[in-house]
Amino acid sequence: MSKSILIIGAGPGFSTGVAEKFGAEGYTVGLISRNTEKLQKLANGLEAKGITCFFAAADASNPIELEQAITELKTRLGGISVLLYNAAALKSKDIWLETPDELAEDFKLNVAHALYSAQLLHEDLKSNQGAVLLTGGSLAKNPNPKYGSLALGKAGILNLAHQLNQRLKPDGIFVGTITINGFIRTGSPTHSPDILAQKLWTLFQNKTNVEIMH
Questions:
Q1: I need a surface site. Which of 50, 88, 131, 158 has the fewest CB within 10 A?
Q2: What domain range includes position 110?
């Protein structure tokens, strides 16, 4: 069984905590985000901890770039056993000021391409009896009109997690989401990347609940 995790929407907060946790558990790590320099910095930090890491730059809102990056990392990692979709259109904009086109574009990044990524990796995840993990947030249940599009996106992620958990269970693929209720800060006694990564790891290990909230 391949032990590797692909993180889409890699950054210096929660996703790095997850990469470090899974890496410490023997997983090889793949990273996708838009900025090559930032990816290199993240990879250097992981490799300094003894974690094997590969990365590919891609805009997760662009399906062609996303597919190319996923295909490249599948080859370099020798297959994918866990997908973490952490990408989102992080913006503050009043829901009343959103246009239909803007909402549709944000939805692609926030939700639709999480599904697309899982579809692209389906055979790997099935053969490895793997998992799809989705990063959720409290806006899914407590929407704020100042973050209208993101709130809709996080509600979509929660709904998608429940649907895919049912749909992919017969294939031996676990799907779950962590709903993060708070600001992620290094050194936080409750919401540090390390603490949240441990919560996600527990969800992944237990495979009993679709959602964990913290």
A1: 50
A2: 4-213
